From TrEMBL:
<feature type="domain" description="Amidohydrolase-related">
    <location>
        <begin position="5"/>
        <end position="328"/>
    </location>
</feature>
<dbReference type="InterPro" id="IPR032466">
    <property type="entry name" value="Metal_Hydrolase"/>
</dbReference>
<dbReference type="InterPro" id="IPR006680">
    <property type="entry name" value="Amidohydro-rel"/>
</dbReference>
<dbReference type="InterPro" id="IPR032465">
    <property type="entry name" value="ACMSD"/>
</dbReference>
<keyword id="KW-0456">Lyase</keyword>
<protein>
    <submittedName>
        <fullName>Amidohydrolase family protein</fullName>
    </submittedName>
</protein>
<dbReference type="Pfam" id="PF04909">
    <property type="entry name" value="Amidohydro_2"/>
</dbReference>
């Protein structure tokens, strides 16, 4: 049996957040997030962050949680709050501080903890430079959001970033933070339960329909939360591609690109995991816990066992796919 490898977990780098704490733009961003979440969910969000802050920052707590969950290796990514509003000098310093903090965090157990960093995508040339530096210093890639301060991930200005990511073989973990639908989702935590998977669905769809995956077939894109709604309803995109000339903007049917991505297993139930595996293939799914957030799971292996997978497929999801993606021995 392979090692159990979790590719979706987070850490908080306190010194980096200290760099932006007094910025007026941060206050505006948080106010917008609060309006989008609604007052009740905003209150719960603040309580949750306060409760999990020690787990986000302490490698010893992380390792103990991994042991309880039966996890051998974890890929640690930053809190997905990249502050894309920051100007170039601040953005460069922030990204570098985050990346150094992730490396330090993972150095507590280098045989068990691996890291992803961040890049200032709002400044594409800086993003390319920081991606290059981060990978050279030992990070396995970077986490990015689904939307960059008014620009889509498929925006032509980001082509150099994608080109460099492909060249380096870096993992690019697409993870949303909130939803661009704003206050329409301000009830009952819809900002996350619907908003996050919807954002991922939109971001991946734009990567497909923009032709980026035709130009960059070697990209290694990992999608959070099972890829959102895309894997289980790509048939509608296929129909549009077949029926309308304005939708035929990529070389292949949209569903044929599903296997160009990797997906975490954070879909909660055995039935949902079966549907994901059926849509994308067992060799494209990896474990994900979203540690230590409340929308994550503490028992990923128990949930994997609920799926109707063959022993070989379950072993691939457990760690075989992640081992190959990370280049582990």
């Amino acid at each position: 049996m392979t090692h159990a490898v979790d590719l979706h977990a987070h850490a908080l780098v306190g010194p980096a957040e200290g760099l932006v704490a007094d910025e007026p733009a941060l206050a505006r961003s948080r106010a917008a997030e609060a309006r989008a979440a609604g007052p009740e969910s905003s209150t719960v969000n603040r309580e949750q962050i306060a409760a999990i802050a020690p787990a986000l920052a302490d490698p010893a707590r992380r390792l103990a949680a991994m042991d309880r969950a039966g996890l051998d290796v974890q890929l640690v990514s930053p809190m997905p709050i990249h502050h894309y509003w920051a100007d170039a000098p601040l953005a460069e310093k922030y990204a570098r501080t985050v990346n150094e903090g992730i490396l330090t965090h993972c150095a507590a157990a280098p045989d068990r903890l691996l890291g992803l960093g961040t890049v200032p995508l709002q400044h594409p040339s800086l993003a390319v430079a920081e991606l290059t530096r981060a990978v050279s210093e030992g990070l396995r890639g970077v986490e990015i959001s689904t939307y960059v301060d008014g620009r889509e991930l498929s925006d032509p200005s980001l082509e150099p970033f994608w080109a460099r990511a492909e060249e380096l073989g870096a993992i690019v973990f697409v993870h949303p933070w909130g939803c661009t639908l704003g206050e329409r989702l301000d009830l009952a935590y819809l900002s996350n339960t619907i908003g996050n998977p919807l954002e991922t669905t939109l971001a991946l769809s734009r990567l497909i329909f923009s032709g980026l995956l035709d130009r960059r077939p070697g990209l290694r894109v990992l999608a959070a939360h099972g890829g959102g709604y895309l894997p289980v309803y790509s048939s509608r995109a296929d129909h549009a591609w077949s029926s309308r000339r304005d939708a035929r903007t990529c070389a292949l049917r949209p569903s044929e690109y599903l296997r160009r991505f990797w997906y975490d297993s954070l879909v909660y139930t055995g039935d949902a995991l079966d549907r994901l595996v059926s849509a994308v293939g067992a060799d494209r799914v990896v474990l994900g816990t979203d540690y230590p957030f409340d929308m994550g799971v503490r028992d990923p292996l128990d949930r994997l066992a609920l799926a109707d997978l063959s022993e070989a497929d379950a072993d691939a999801v457990r760690g075989g796919n992640a081992t190959a993606l990370l280049g582990l021995s």
